[in-house]
């Protein structure tokens, strides 16, 4: 039984859905990461820290599922990508997982004791749980753009020839800092709409302004690096978009500057980098004018723009190889089978709207700013 | 390949999975106990049931946090440590994991926040609905992960595609309605319900022994006794033994845990106790009950339970046929359009996995000697003494829980909450469900060896191309992190239990915490 949707179209849809998942993760869990990365800096006493923690306390857990789902969906739709990237980034992944593990316990256990030392330790744990993943995700994306040192053998077994420290080079650090700036901005704009006006709100605004400017500067610098630094890969010869998912059937080569090819071919794609600049600029405006909704909208648009830019620049590549370009994973050679992509699309189409509906309802119930007074009186608060 | 990498990867997975599974069963069961308790609150409107729900909810939260924390690792570990496995079966195995995220994780994680924060923001019935959604989410999560695990044990609905060098799905419904997965789901969630019931019963007994919070304790005791009795019956009666008659690999698991070296005339007897010896391929000093095994595993008087030696012989035949499939795949790698090779592959494809067993001894299975084939055939036998003993502990505990909850239910029915011997026993029983559950995991996964996917992919081929140093780093890291969190969790749990069902902002009402509550009808 052949699925009713063409294999090529399904691969394109799943490439787009990969972007949707990453963006969903950045838009929701992104502000949680940014908020806890800001925790030690915007909140000075225990009540203030509890305000910050409780601004995301009830919803961060659902947001984090975007990250888990990202893992599951890549496994299901792009098994090659899942297999190569997570084993390749082995120790970096371990770092991220360890940091993320601190979050659920940090939120839940911090308020179980009143001991200030106990609470200060968990505050730092929460900071690490926000800052480290934000940095490492960016570093990972930087490495994806420059290519990852892996090759595939005849049985399609992946061999990785890099090291943990090898992941940190100037371009990837730049990408890491951009990721931190983008998520800190998003966290700051979240605090702007979620925290009562006062000292915490003001400090968050101050960090938001810095992060917005840093986002714009780092994004521009990254673009310059891609352009002048000669990053990019290209597929050689004919591509069969319906062909079997086997990287040995396509030929890819590293070509300096090829990451800009798509913008010449499809000028509309320039919208993505434009949005990457416009978003943080709007957020900055919103913060300065104390228009909190504009700030949050701006930081959201910025994340959409920046992530889309990476995806569109690389299309159809997903994971290029720096040591053996022929092993590179693309939209046409790294997906699941036709049947699996179709089944997963049906499952997503049925389930994701329901998820969005009840998530929206939960946010509606919890609508409103967190106040210092609430932190003192609500027995359910962390 | 480096066997040290394989063994360390297995250790890494076992440690993180067993640790994760310390928290999951309690979450599975306690979430439904919360639903029951809160339902009583909504129906009767009595404040004490709100207190009860919130108290157990607090313990639920402490446990849930670590379940979530350690679950993050699980989702990414396949890619990190089992890269070739992920490539080889991701087309089938990835789907249930992704659907688990969409259908279950979002549900439980989105509503769990509201469950804790929504007490004064929602009406009573709506809050109950939220609690129910959390319970539904956690249990759906168990369903999907067991669909994935069931497929590893009994890989239906899929075939090997030589063009992509991996397994691909051809019948998703078969994967979904895999009988092994169904049996595992019922067995596993029931075990979680038993675990939570023992937990609630044990802590309630402690309160009753000390005469503290007795109104809360008696009611909790009663709920847990009833729920635990039903669940403990379900664990044993709907145990997953029914799946063992399906395939040769499942039969091997059954034969190994029964240490049944040779096929016996039907219906086979069950070995209650004995000392299996791998060297002699026999079980010493065995005490057998006649007929029972045949009846249980084949549900008939005439069904035969195959012994280990006979299954090994069959495995040898599969290996020889698998070499033909392997040969065809290699030819197809050279030329995708080699029709003769394609036809050869079609004839032998179901045995391809068996040829891969030889990769432990030779690079190219086609050059294997008869001795190597014989050796590989014996590799299909999992560790018999370990299986034999683990199964007996697990099953023994299963029967013990039925008796235990039978007594508890009787005591609750006649309102005898003052039987000190039973209350003390209930306290000491608290760790036992965890022993049974961890042993159950070991039984299922050791019984699957040498396969990662039964009959399809040997475990030793599934690992990532990592170094021993890298894996030791993560094993050490996870051990330190998990160890520290375990200490913290247990301390917080004990502190919360000692403190009892008081609200944070309330001043404990002297020594009469029972005052003000309506008495039970029989009191």
UniProtKB/TrEMBL annotation, chain A:
Q: One GO CC annotation, please?
A: cytochrome complex
Query: Which enzyme class, named as a word?
Result: oxidoreductase
Where, by residue number, does the polypeptide cross the bilayer? 12-43, 88-105, 126-150, 170-195, 207-227, 268-288, 300-319, 339-363
Q: Which UniProt keywords apply?
A: Cell membrane, Electron transport, Heme, Iron, Membrane, Metal-binding, Oxidoreductase, Transmembrane, Transmembrane helix, Transport
A molecular function annotated in GO for this UniProt entry is:
electron transfer activity
Q: In which broad location class does this protein mainly occur, judging by the first location in its UniProt entry?
A: membrane
Subcellular locations according to the entry: Cell membrane
EC number(s) on record? 1.10.3.-
Name the source's superkingdom: Bacteria
GO BP annotations, alphabetical order:
aerobic electron transport chain
- Membrane topology category: Multi-pass membrane protein
Q: Describe the family membership recorded for this protein in Swiss-Prot or TrEMBL.
A: Belongs to the cytochrome ubiquinol oxidase subunit 2 family.
What is the recorded name of this protein? Cytochrome d ubiquinol oxidase subunit II
Species of the source = Sphingobium jiangsuense
């Amino acid at each position: 039984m052949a699925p009713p949707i063409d294999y090529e179209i399904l691969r394109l849809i799943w490439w787009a859905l990969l972007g949707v998942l990453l963006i969903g993760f950045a838009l929701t869990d992104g502000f949680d990461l940014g908020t806890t990365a800001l925790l030690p800096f915007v909140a000075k006493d225990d009540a203030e820290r509890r305000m910050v923690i409780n601004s995301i306390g009830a919803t961060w857990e659902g947001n984090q599922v975007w990250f888990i789902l990202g893992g599951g969906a890549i496994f299901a739709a792009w098994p090659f990508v899942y297999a190569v990237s997570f084993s390749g980034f082995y120790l970096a992944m371990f770092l991220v997982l360890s940091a993320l593990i601190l979050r659920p316990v940090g939120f839940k256990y911090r308020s179980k004791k009143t001991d200030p030392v106990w609470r200060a330790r968990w505050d730092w744990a929460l900071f690490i749980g926000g800052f480290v993943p934000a940095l490492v995700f960016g570093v990972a994306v930087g490495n994806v753009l420059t290519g990852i040192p892996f090759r595939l053998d005849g049985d399609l077994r992946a061999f990785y020839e890099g090291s943990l420290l090898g992941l940190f080079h100037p371009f990837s650090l730049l990408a890491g800092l951009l990721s931190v700036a983008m998520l800190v901005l998003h966290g700051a704009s979240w605090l702007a709409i979620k925290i009562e006006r006062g000292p915490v709100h003001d400090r968050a605004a101050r960090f938001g302004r810095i992060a917005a400017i840093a986002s714009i500067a780092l994004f521009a610098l990254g673009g310059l690096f891609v352009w002048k630094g000669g990053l990019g890969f290209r597929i050689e010869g004919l591509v069969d978009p319906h062909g079997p998912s086997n990287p040995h059937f396509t030929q890819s080569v590293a070509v300096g500057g090829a990451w800009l090819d798509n913008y010449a071919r499809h000028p509309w794609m320039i919208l993505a980098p434009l949005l990457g600049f416009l978003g943080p600029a709007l957020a900055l405006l919103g913060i300065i004018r104390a228009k909190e909704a504009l700030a949050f909208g701006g930081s959201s648009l910025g994340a959409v723009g920046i992530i889309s830019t990476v995806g569109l620049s690389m299309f159809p590549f997903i994971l290029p190889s720096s040591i053996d370009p022929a092993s590179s994973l693309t939209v046409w050679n790294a997906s699941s089978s036709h049947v699996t992509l179709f089944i997963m699309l049906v499952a997503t189409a049925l389930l994701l709207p329901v998820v969005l509906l009840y998530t929206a309802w939960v946010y509606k119930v919890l609508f409103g700013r967190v106040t210092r007074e609430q932190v003192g009186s609500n027995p359910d608060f962390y | 390949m480096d066997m040290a990498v394989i063994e360390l990867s297995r250790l890494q997975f076992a440690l993180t999975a067993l640790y994760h599974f310390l928290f999951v069963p309690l979450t599975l069961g306690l979430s439904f106990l919360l639903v029951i308790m809160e339902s009583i609150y909504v129906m009767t409107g009595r404040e004490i049931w709100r207190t009860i729900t919130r108290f157990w909810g607090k313990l639920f939260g402490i446990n849930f946090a670590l379940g979530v924390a350690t679950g993050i690792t699980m989702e990414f570990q396949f890619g990190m440590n089992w890269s070739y496995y992920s490539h080889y079966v991701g087309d089938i195995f990835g789907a249930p994991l992704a659907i688990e995220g969409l259908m279950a994780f979002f549900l439980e994680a989105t509503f769990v926040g509201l469950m804790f924060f929504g007490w004064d923001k929602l009406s009573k019935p709506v809050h109950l609905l939220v609690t129910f959604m959390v319970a539904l989410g956690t249990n759906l999560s168990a369903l999907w992960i067991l669909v994935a695990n069931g497929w590893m044990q009994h890989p239906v609905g899929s075939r090997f595609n030589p063009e992509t060098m991996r397994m691909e799905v051809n019948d998703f419904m078969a994967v979904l309605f895999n009988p092994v997965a169904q049996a595992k789901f019922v067995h596993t969630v029931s075990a979680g319900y038993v675990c939570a019931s023992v937990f609630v019963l044990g802590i309630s007994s402690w309160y009753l022994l000390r005469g503290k919070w007795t109104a809360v304790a008696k009611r909790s005791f009663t709920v847990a006794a009833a729920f635990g009795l039903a669940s403990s019956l379900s664990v044993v009666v709907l145990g997953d033994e029914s799946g063992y008659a399906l395939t040769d690999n499942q039969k091997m698991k059954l034969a190994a845990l029964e240490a049944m070296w040779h096929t016996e005339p039907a219906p086979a007897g069950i070995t209650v106790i004995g000392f299996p010896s791998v060297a002699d391929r026999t079980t010493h000093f065995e005490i057998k009950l006649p007929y029972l095994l045949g009846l249980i595993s084949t549900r008939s008087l005439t069904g035969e339970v195959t012994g280990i030696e006979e299954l090994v012989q069959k495995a040898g035949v599969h290996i020889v046929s698998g070499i033909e499939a392997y040969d065809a795949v290699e030819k197809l790698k050279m030329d995708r359009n080699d029709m003769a090779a394609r036809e050869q592959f079609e004839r032998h494809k179901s045995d391809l996995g068996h040829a891969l067993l030889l990769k432990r001894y030779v690079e190219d299975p086609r050059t294997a000697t008869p001795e190597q084939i014989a050796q590989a055939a014996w590799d299909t036998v999992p560790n018999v003494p370990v299986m034999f003993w683990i199964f007996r502990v697990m099953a023994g505990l299963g029967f013990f829980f039925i008796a235990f909850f039978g007594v508890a239910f009787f005591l609750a029915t006649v309102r005898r909450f003052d039987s000190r011997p039973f209350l003390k026993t209930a306290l000491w029983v608290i760790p036992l469900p965890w022993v049974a559950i961890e042993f159950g995991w070991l039984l299922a996964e050791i019984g699957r060896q040498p396969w990662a996917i039964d009959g399809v992919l040997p475990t030793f081929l599934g690992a990532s191309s990592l170094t021993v140093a890298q894996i030791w780093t993560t094993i050490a890291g996870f051990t330190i992190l998990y160890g520290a969190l375990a200490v913290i969790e247990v301390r917080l749990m004990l502190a919360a239990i000692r403190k009892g069902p008081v609200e944070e902002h309330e001043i404990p009402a002297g020594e009469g915490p029972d005052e003000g509550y309506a008495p039970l009808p029989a009191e």
